[in-house]
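S.,

Sequence below, as promised.
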Amino acid sequence: MKNARKLIGGLIAGAAIGVAIGVLLAPSSGAKTRKKLIGGSQRMKDDVLASVDDSLASLRKQFNHKIDQLARGSKEAINHASEKVKI
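The prediction came back faster than expected:
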């Protein structure tokens, strides 16, 4: 979980720095530079949201898998215990 947060934070920081440097070093007028910054920010936001959605989907899948395992184990333990009681 901590690694995922660090990865997402690094992606956000790297993307922001890359967009800012690229736009600021490009020879353009102020209006064009602002448009580029807005466009780059929108793309970065979309990329980050997609990455977060993917991470959340993966975490949900792992969580559901663990819950299923626990439920199966509990059911098996209950069945085993009820068989012992019947004997």
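The chain has one domain: 2-86.

Coffee later?
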